[in-house]
Design brief:
This protein has one domain (22-123, 165-286). The protein has four helices and 19 strands. It has helices spanning 10-22, 97-100, 256-260, 262-272; strands at residues 24-26, 35-42, 45-51, 57-61, 64-76, 81-93, 111-112, 120-122, 126-136, 139-142, 145-148, 152-162, 165-172, 178-186, 200-207, 213-225, 232-234, 237-238, 244-246. The strands form four sheets. Strands 1, 6, 8, 13, 14, 16, 17 and 19 form an eight-stranded mixed sheet that branches. Strands 2, 3, 4, 5, 7, 15 and 18 form a seven-stranded antiparallel sheet that branches. A two-stranded antiparallel sheet has the order 9-12. It is globular and about 80 Å long. It starts with 9 loop residues before the first helix and ends in a 15-residue tail after the last helix.
Length: 287
């Protein structure tokens, strides 16, 4: 059964009905399919972020209503192109976004209670061999006669261990409340082709009021032509951020332990996946 709407009376009920028709509602019931929050095209590449709706956990922490949301970010890059970096931003709102800007400043009832996960994780280092040097062959000649003084040079070899980076932070709104989150993924800048794109796992914990709230999501990034440092393309198509409405579920389950272990869990999920073996994107990434 879908999550029941909180009881509302009078004009609030009428307003709630208008919102249900205007914004898309996210179902977090067990078995609910992943919901695309954002999708962007970066030339021929595509990046999508979905909310793993059925994995959402509702409960309590220190007598406050909290929810744990799990995200999956999938990057598709065509042959001959490499994603250099990308940034994902999520914002939560208590009210209809059309009215949120006009509300007076007050104590927020919806915010992130800690840093989103993973805070900072790096991929498995890949050893790369680099050789640098020069060679000089001085000589001279006159007419048909030429001579050489030999070849002189210097060469230095080294091994470097590089990897991709995935990090995050909380974002402040105009009232200095932590109502947003950002994740930044950076490829191996010295040799990005060693790490093929795969699904990135992320999560965040939100303290919320027991009434509907809203979420928006945007993704942007840079695409590079393979083996080239000059052909760099920024995103050229960002679909408008769609507004999603989430109906909270009343649950008295204590989520303190889940929150304490969330960072380790998400970090492990990102490290266990070998990105180079990722070949097929989930259906929702290309929809």
């Amino acid at each position: 059964m879908p999550n029941p709407a909180p009881p509302m009376i009078g004009r609030h009920r009428q307003r709630y009905g208008e919102l249900r028709r205007k914004v898309q509602e996210i179902d977090t019931d067990p078995g609910a399919p992943p919901r695309n929050l954002a999708r962007t095209d970066i030339r021929r590449a595509r990046v999508s972020c979905c909310l793993k709706a059925s994995d959402t956990k509702w409960g309590k922490q220190a007598d406050h209503n909290v929810a744990i949301f799990f995200l999956e970010i999938v990057m598709y890059q065509p042959p001959g192109y490499l994603l250099k970096d990308l940034t994902l931003q999520i914002k939560f709102l208590e009210q209809d976004p059309d009215r949120a800007g006009s509300r007076s400043r007050r104590r927020a009832r919806l915010w992130l209670i800690n840093n989103p996960s993973p805070t900072h994780v790096t991929g498995t280092p890949r050893n790369q061999h680099h050789t640098r040097g020069y060679s000089i062959e001085p000589g001279g000649g006159a007419g048909a006669i030429s001579f050489s003084l030999g070849r002189f040079g210097h060469e230095r070899s080294m091994e470097r261990a590089r990897s991709w980076i995935f990090r995050s932070n909380r974002d402040l709104d105009e009232h200095d409340n932590y109502t947003g989150a950002s994740w930044i993924w950076e490829s191996n800048k010295y040799n990005p082709q060693v790490d093929g794109p795969g699904p990135l796992q992320a999560a965040l914990v939100v303290r919320h009021p027991s009434q509907p709230f809203f979420v928006t999501c945007t993704v942007e990034g840079n695409l590079r032509k393979n083996y080239s440092i000059l052909r760099l393309f920024r995103r050229n198509h960002q679909e408008p951020a769609e507004i999603r409405m989430i109906l909270p579920v009343v649950n008295d389950r204590d989520l303190s332990q889940d929150i304490d272990t969330l960072e380790d869990k998400i970090t492990r999920l990102n490290l266990e996946f070998d990105r180079r073996e990722y070949r097929k994107s989930p259906e929702w990434v290309l929809r």
